[in-house]
Each structure stands twice: as structure tokens, then as C-alpha cells.
Design brief:
With 264 residues, the chain is mostly helical. The chain starts with 9 loop residues before the first strand and ends with a helix. It has one domain. Helix 2 runs antiparallel to helix 4, helix 4 packs across helix 5 and helix 6 runs antiparallel to helix 7. 37% of the residues are buried. One of its GO terms (cellular component) is plasma membrane. InterPro entries: Lgt. This is Phosphatidylglycerol--prolipoprotein diacylglyceryl transferase.
Length: 264
């Protein structure tokens, strides 16, 4: 068993002002996305200014934060937020839904593309490889917050998280998700998108890979206590939300290459 590193969730405190690591992870994700986007900006829209790039990153980031929070409220804990609506603003405590954030990004990209004369999937294919750096940073934030830990396990790298009332050795599932949703997904999308691909294919590959990675990790991740398992003592809300991502993503890839073959 490995010892859980005791990391104060508050990175910096200045009087009553507290800066949390969880919030800093979002800044790292946004900053990393902007830097990565700037490396391929000339190929995507050579006539656009850097200000336009900043606008795109800003609206996508807003979609992630607003959609992620509202998605968590709707998908995972609606009753608690109805009881105390002020909880919606307390994002430093965690409680963000990837699938809600994805919906927010889709809406932000649709709005941006319409205003700037680009097709929706042109922009989405550009944005998709940027997302994993934010996903990876967010999972590190979950680990520092000692939240979203895995099931009890006797693997050598299991950890006892300070927030676990049972104090059991558990899978550090946040680190599994960092490795898959952050590192592996970034490598796959970044390498795949370096060459011209049919429009929609990169976005579809994102949906397939994320959905598969998340579905796998859910087997060793402790389900939300207030939801539990949806069926068969192992099927979770996270897995349910990933199934349409995989199906739709695979369909998008198939359609993208089929359309290109017809054009050729």
C-alpha cells in the first residue's frame, strides 16, 4: 500500500482569500489549451488574429465550467442543490461533470463557429485535441481534493484517502483517469490530428476514446454514494453517459471517412 501524500487543498491563503489547487488546475488546463492551440492556429485559420484564438479558448473554457457545474447538478445531485442553491457557486469543493462540460463546449463552439464563418465540426476537430490537458489537470485536482476515489483494493499501489470515512485502502482511480483521459487521450488525438483527416473524424475519435477509457475506469471507481449502481451491482451513471459517446463517436468516424471516399 502507498501512503497518500498529504496535500493541503488550499494552495495559497492570503487572509480570508484562499486559492485552491482545484481551481488552479482549471487555470492550467485553460492555459495549456491556449498554448497548444497557438501551435496549430496558422493551419486552422491563418487569417485570424491571436485575439480570435483567445476568444475561442475563453468561450470553450466558459462552456466547460458552466456546463460542467450544471451537468453535475442535473446528473448527479439535483436534490442537494435544490435544497441549497448556493452550492452551485462553490466549485472549489469539486462537483463537476465531464458530460455536462462537454455539452457546454458543444454549445460554445456552435456559437463561436456561427459568428466566425466556420463549420461546427471544423472548430470541434480543432478543439478536441486540446481538451485532454484540462481533463488531466482536473483529475489531479480530484486527487489533491481526495475525492472520487476508487473501490477498496489490495493492489500494492492502493491508498487510504483522508476523506474516506471507512479508511479503506482504495484504487487511486483519479490517477488512472489522469493517465487515460489526460495523457493517453492527448497522445492519441494529437498524433492523429497532425495529418489532415476528414472533417468530424477527430471529434469522433475523441468521443470513442474518452467513452471507452471512462467506462473502463468506472469498474474500479467508487460510485457516487447518493446514486450508487444503476444495475447489476456494477453499472454506474458514468458508464451510462459514456455509451452514447462511444456509439455516436464511432458513427461520426464512419460517416466522415465514407463521405470522403464518395467525394474522392
Amino acid at each position: 500500500m502507498l501512503a497518500y501524500p498529504q496535500i493541503d487543498p488550499v494552495a495559497l491563503a492570503i487572509g480570508p482569500l484562499q486559492i485552491h489547487w482545484y481551481g488552479l488546475m482549471y487555470l492550467i488546463g485553460i492555459g495549456g489549451a491556449w498554448w497548444l492551440a497557438s501551435r496549430r492556429w496558422a493551419d486552422f485559420a491563418p487569417t485570424w488574429s491571436r485575439e480570435k484564438l483567445s476568444d475561442l479558448v475563453f468561450w470553450v473554457a466558459l462552456g466547460v465550467i458552466a456546463g460542467g457545474r450544471l451537468g453535475y447538478v442535473l446528473f448527479y445531485d439535483l436534490a442537494a442543490y435544490i435544497n441549497d442553491p448556493t452550492l452551485i457557486l462553490q466549485i472549489w469543493k469539486g462537483g463537476m461533470s465531464f458530460h455536462g462540460g462537454l455539452i457546454g463546449v458543444l454549445l460554445a463552439v456552435a456559437w463561436f463557429a456561427r459568428r466566425n464563418g466556420k463549420r461546427f465540426f471544423e472548430v470541434m476537430d480543432f478543439v478536441a485535441p486540446l481538451v485532454p490537458i484540462g481533463l488531466g489537470a482536473g483529475r489531479i485536482g480530484n486527487f489533491i481534493n481526495a475525492e472520487l476515489w476508487g473501490k477498496a483494493s489490495d493492489v500494492p499501489w492502493a491508498m487510504v484517502f483522508p476523506t474516506d470515512p471507512l479508511q479503506l485502502a482504495r484504487h487511486p482511480s483519479q490517477l488512472y483517469q489522469f493517465a487515460l483521459e489526460g495523457v493517453a487521450l492527448f497522445a492519441i488525438l494529437w498524433i492523429y490530428s497532425r495529418k489532415p483527416r476528414p472533417t468530424m473524424a477527430v471529434s469522433g475519435l475523441f468521443g470513442v476514446c474518452y467513452g471507452v477509457f471512462r467506462f473502463i475506469v468506472e469498474f474500479v471507481r467508487e460510485p457516487d454514494a447518493h446514486i450508487g449502481y444503476l444495475a447489476f451491482d456494477w453499472f454506474t451513471m458514468g458508464q451510462l453517459l459514456c455509451i452514447p459517446m462511444v456509439v455516436i463517436g464511432a458513427g461520426m468516424i464512419w460517416f466522415a471517412y465514407r463521405r470522403e471516399a464518395k467525394i474522392a
